[in-house]
Write a structure and sequence with these properties.
Blueprint lengths: L2 H29 L1 H5 L1 H24 L3 H35 L9 H28 L2 E13 L4 E7 L10 H14 L3 E4 L9 H6 L14 E3 L3 H5 L2 H9 L4 E2 L3 E5 L3 E5 L5 H5 L6 H4 L9 E4 L6 H6 L4 E4 L10 H8 L5 E5 L2 E5 L17 E12 L1
Parallel strand pairs: 1-12, 2-3, 3-4, 4-5, 7-8, 8-9, 9-11
Antiparallel strand pairs: 2-12, 6-7, 10-11
Length: 385
């Protein structure tokens, strides 16, 4: 990413972030008399919470410690409260405006409305955050049964386990890896695919505990393969990819591999390689030019964009992640608007697409719009030759 683009991006992000915090700050200040009476204490506490996530990221980039991990967790929860608080306070303002028209709200009761609006928004936000935290720490197995009308050399069924968006770092750590390993062992897959964003960002928190060592995958018939996600590039691909490969994981970088039975798997480099390294990934047509289309073709692509490219190239199955299904409400409505397939299963032409909500999280460890999940896809083939 060019430095000018980075500066513009950060300027927009910080402007939005601090504007949202200022909006919520004054909502509390104007609603509760006790807050105004202790305005300095309120101001100090609020500013401390508002900058916690930023401080955590700065410390993490310089020297990762347990303290920076704790700040990341606290800052993540505050970010979630910021989103919910902003949304519900906007809704409260709209209700207030509508009720002022017939005179239901006036100068005599506006103070009470502001107070109870503040209490309600904070209470509902806390409930959503608590429920979302529970969703995030209890992953589920999402199972699909599909048929690919292609022949293979003696393989009638393939059981695939696919895990996207682990986001190893300051929040997703050893305990999560142990849980993921346990689930994969129980599922007994033939092959395992890691669909990108294995690393969250900065390598410091990962290397401090050598976190990927705790991913103990079961012995499979067909192996373990991974692709890059955008966060592998955010963290610095020259660091993240060698680290992943050092654990015996085959990272497919615009590569085609052949599984037993003639099943062809294409692993795409994430599209953000262009944004961070000015390096274009191969067009899908070029990547698949040596495939035998009588046999199944499976494509692994972290971001579910340009689905029409997979359809045009008669891909049988594409597996993706990235969207987190919005991760927490109401952001799931935005991902549905952005992506043709933002979550779940869809068939377009002869191409079947499955998008996972992912195992880990980014930012707050909250999933109020989705569940942490591991995909299991049972594929039946038309026949063997």
């Amino acid at each position: 990413m060019k430095s000018s683009q980075l500066i513009i991006f950060l300027a927009v992000v910080f402007t939005v972030y601090f504007a949202g915090n200022a909006y919520i700050f004054f909502k509390g200040y104007n609603a509760i008399p006790a807050i105004r009476e202790n305005r300095w204490l309120y101001t100090i506490l609020f500013i401390t919470l508002a900058i916690t996530f930023i401080i955590a990221k700065v410390l993490e980039s310089r020297h990762s410690t347990v303290f920076s991990d704790v700040l990341n967790i606290i800052g993540g929860f505050w970010m979630a409260f910021l989103v919910y608080g902003f949304f519900f306070f906007i809704l409260s303002d709209l209700i207030s405006l509508l009720l002022r028209i017939p005179g239901i709200i006036n100068t005599t009761n506006i103070a009470d409305f502001r107070k109870w609006s503040f209490v309600t928004v904070v209470s509902v936000s806390i409930v959503l955050i608590a429920g979302g935290f529970i969703n995030a720490i209890i992953p589920k197995v999402r199972e699909y049964n599909i048929t690919i009308p292609k022949v293979t050399d003696g393989i009638q069924r393939l059981r695939v386990a696919a895990v996207s968006d682990i986001h190893l770092g300051s929040i997703i750590r050893k305990r999560s890896m142990n849980k993921l390993s346990e689930i994969l062992e129980q599922q007994k897959p033939d092959v395992i695919f890691l669909l990108g964003d294995i690393i969250d960002g900065e390598m410091g928190p990962v290397l401090r505990g050598d976190l990927l060592q705790y991913l103990k995958v079961p012995v499979t018939n067909d192996g373990l393969y991974a692709i890059t996600g955008n966060h592998e590039f955010i963290g610095g691909a020259k660091k993240t990819i060698p680290y992943i490969e050092s654990k015996g994981i085959r990272v497919l970088k615009d590569e085609l591999v052949l599984l037993p039975g003639g099943i062809q798997v294409a692993g795409r480099t994430d599209r953000d390689s262009k944004r961070f390294y000015s390096k274009e990934r191969k067009p899908l047509e070029e990547l698949l030019e040596t495939t035998d289309r009588r046999y199944p073709v499976i494509v692994l692509d972290h971001q579910p964009v340009n689905i029409d490219e997979a359809v045009r190239n008669n891909v049988d199955l594409q597996l993706s992640g990235h969207t987190h299904n919005g991760q927490f409400w109401p952001l799931n409505y935005f991902t549905r608007a952005i992506y043709e397939v933002s979550y779940g299963y869809k068939k377009i032409g002869n191409t079947q697409i499955i998008v996972s909500s992912g195992f880990g999280i980014w930012g707050p460890r909250i999933r109020s719009a989705s569940r942490s999940e591991i995909l299991v896809i049972n594929i039946s083939f038309e026949g063997s030759i």
